[in-house]
Amino acid sequence: MNIESLVRRNIRELVPYSTARDECGLESGIFLDANESPFNNGFNRYPDPAQLKLKQIYSLVTGIPSENLFAGNGSDEAIDLLIRVFCEPGADNIVTISPTYGMYRTAAAVNDIKCTEVPLEADFSLNPQKLLKACAAETKIIFLCSPNNPTGNLLNKDSVETVIRNFRGIVVVDEAYIDFSGDGGFAGKVNTFPNLVVLRTLSKAWGMAGLRVGFAIASAPLVSFLSKVKYPYNVNTLSQEKAVSLLKRGNRSQLDTVIFERERVASELKLVSDVVEVFPSDANFLLVRFKDSKEVFRRLLNSGIIVRDRTSAEGCRGALRISIGTGSENTLLLDRIKGTCAGNALSLLCRQRSTAETMISVKIDPGGNLVNEISTGIPFFNHMLEQIPVHGGFSLQLWASGDLENGAHHTIEDVAIVVGEALSELVASVPGNNRYGFSLPMDESSASVLIDTGGRAYLKWEADFPAEYVEGIESDMFRHFFDTLSRSMKATIHVKAGGTNAHHVAEAIFKAFARALRTALSSSGDDTKIQSSKGVL
Ligand code: PMP
Prior knowledge:
Elements lengths: L8 H4 L7 H5 L27 H11 L6 E4 L2 H12 L6 E6 L4 H8 L3 E6 L8 H6 L5 E7 L11 H10 L3 E5 L21 E6 L12 E4 L2 H10 L7 H13 L2 H18 L5 E4 L6 E6 L2 H10 L5 E2 L9 E5 L3 H12 L10 E6 L3 E8 L7 E3 L3 H14 L2 E8 L6 H20 L7 E3 L7 E7 L5 E6 L5 E2 L2 E2 L1 H14 L2 E7 L3 H20 L9 E2 L2 E2 L1
4'-deoxy-4'-aminopyridoxal-5'-phosphate binds next to helix 4.
């Protein structure tokens, strides 16, 4: 099949915009060619228009050759560009399935292209003959989505291949969710089928929705037409750099967690009497039919849980699309759906921090509804941090991924920063709190912690550890942790501790801190401000 003949004449003849960097070909030198600012702030230069490093690492991770990759501002950009390259406005059309991802229709409408939707079968499977029959001479692109959104199922591969082999135009297979399916998808077939385009994204399994990076995978000549019409600098510097560093980190354990959780949530939902059907899913969401979806939707919303109402989509009457969250988010969702949890609205305090060394996410539920989950990659530190919510009287979810190959220092320090900021917010969220807290010895080792949450950062540290290391962590790291915490939390913290067992000394300090915090957090009465000798804070 000659792809060039399918391309719109004006695009075939288009002389693409040539950037200053395209023309010079040099990576270093004195750049006086693009009217940029000469002052280096990290972003004064235009990004690489060909996204070479990004494509190189994505190629390494997936095995897809770089020459078959087009990188876009999300895969949404590729959807739009494919329509612009192949469809003549006001004349051509596209064909897709129903229900499916809404952007194919929207991007077509923006370009004045009609969209014909062919309903999937009752079990959401694809009937290739029915689809091909709906194509006319003006049909330039067929959009398929596998695993399909919002149904969650992979389309049968033979059926997809029948469509690719028998359609005389472009077939796009959107594989945004393929990583959750365990299937390799169609990316390996783009050099076999010149009319095939596979879409992939970093927004789902790679956790980079905020960066807006997606790929179209196709034969090199087809990729060159997409590159011809894209904005020259369509993927910004920050997104390219961050995507490269996150791709290097890998996503296997998060992927395994989501798949495990999907199966757990699906099997638990099947036992709920309000649930009519849980559709099989190869993605990171479940389509669930309820007896009364409106009531469930409202109940979840009242609890601060937002899901997607898909009841008006073809074949989806009474169905909600539910994304898979963390283990405890899913547990809370299940509790709310089962109606076994009090319906208090959740107001979570969330903090994130991401640097070259660590990536940290903290959620605090002042009401204590979440299951505590602490994951830093340092087992003893996890054990210590667990004491804070358990004895502090709230719930805490903390996920940290750090450069542990360089030791525990960065992870412990950065966790202290993020936890401290979240605790500072927690203190501020309790009007009329006690402000001060103190605690007395616990365990066979003694520890007492005095705390003032009134906004002054100071650490007084009088802890005697009987050993230099505690379960592999330098004992001075605990001083450093509380020093950093006192600053990020803006609290005065006095610690006095000692004992004969280093593990117990550390644990007693964390417990005492949490108890002191609990006292400080509890509300002393009907005051709405924090008490101070200078008035109120
Ligand atoms: N394809 C499908 C099937 C999707 O569900 C989505 C996003 N919801 C996208 C593409 C868009 O992905 P991106 O963030 O890469 O634009």
